[in-house]
Amino acid sequence: MLRQSIRRSAAPLSKITRSAPSTQLRCLSDLSNDQKTTHFGSKTVLESEKEKLVGQVFSSVASKYDIMNDVMSLGVHRLWKDHFIRKLDAGARPGGRPLDFIDVAGGSGDIAFGLLDHAKARFQDDKSTMTVVDINPDMLKEGEKRLLDTKYKNDDRISFLVQNGEVLDQIEDNSKDVYTVSFGIRNFTNIQAGLNTAYRVLKPGGIIGILEFSKVDNTVVDLAYQNWSKFLPVFGQAIANDFDSYQYLVESIQKFPKQEDFKSMIQEAGFYVPEPGYENLTFGVAAIHIGIKL
Ligand SMILES: C[S@@+](CC[C@H](N)C(=O)[O-])C[C@H]1O[C@@H](n2cnc3c(N)ncnc32)[C@H](O)[C@@H]1O
Ligand SMILES: *[C@@H]1O[C@H](CO)[C@@H](O)[C@H](O)[C@H]1NC(C)=O
Ligand SMILES: *[C@@H]1O[C@H](CO)[C@@H](O)[C@H](O)[C@H]1NC(C)=O
Ligand SMILES: *[C@@H]1O[C@H](CO)[C@@H](O)[C@H](O)[C@H]1NC(C)=O
Q: Where do the annotations place S-adenosyl-L-methionine binding (predicted)?
């Protein structure tokens, strides 16, 4: 699988699907006011509406991440994710043993569902299991909600687990075949601990795949990217009324180790890293790192 040459992202731009931001609260003014009301934050709303609003707050956590990824990458993160999934090319070969996947920081489920779709399409694999882990229960709830819109809704192969990716104390040693983390490890307090834990939970022969924002390798693109980053919090304020999260996004990307250093950290955790160790996407705006537990 790793020797196979890396195919370029072939998905046409038109294939990029945008999930509608659901942060907007519904207009309640046209409802008659003789119905029972309740409190939702500082707003007074109908009791029947409250459940929906609570749901919208959950989904706004996830769509906030979607929007941030969209803004930061100009929508291209969806192509990167497709490429990431195809590059891993994971799935039980026909007649082969099913795999155990774990997708960490995978709240929204997009990588998890994408990996299973790929396994099915490429290898007719409908036996492999998937554990979706996220530290944020709201994010995970959103993933469970999105599951209902997929063909896996009645499938007990997928489980959701609130866990810190640095620890994963509910995941046994040597129990997983494929560990993925997409745009999540940057947020770990202790990244090395996260990588060591990934090594622990993978079986010998297991693969780690990491997709993350990285360092731009082209001077001209980097200038433009730096300029873009400077304005991002301002756009964040305008688009999502949220300066700080976008400021944090930029800072966390700047703080994240550069490709060669991150590769060393993966090796430090014990992984064998096939050369060159990573693939730059879009001039290094993002990168895919791969390691194998021998
Ligand atoms: C930007 S989202 C990425 C979601 C999805 N994997 C994607 O690629 O779009 C980052 C996710 O990382 C999760 N996260 C942050 N720190 C984590 C940790 N230490 N352990 C597990 N999940 C974590 C957050 O809750 C959030 O859901
Ligand atoms: C993780 O993300 C949250 C907000 O999304 C932020 O408040 C926190 O400081 C981040 N932690 C690290 C270590 O980057
Ligand atoms: C990827 O980008 C980094 C810096 O941003 C650069 O040093 C490196 O040569 C590039 N590596 C590959 C494998 O393209
Ligand atoms: C980015 O900003 C610098 C000055 O800070 C300017 O010299 C450069 O031309 C800008 N680049 C682009 C592509 O916008």
A: 108, 134, 164-165, 182
Asked if 82 and 16 count as a contact pair (C-beta separation under 8 A), the reply is no
Residue 38, pLDDT above cutoff 60: no
User: Ligand 4: residues whose CB is within 6 Å?
Assistant: 223-224, 227
Single pTM value for the model:
0.83
Domains and CATH numbers, the chain: 1-7+80-208 (3.40.50.150)
Range of lowest pLDDT (32-41, 58-67, 171-180): 32-41
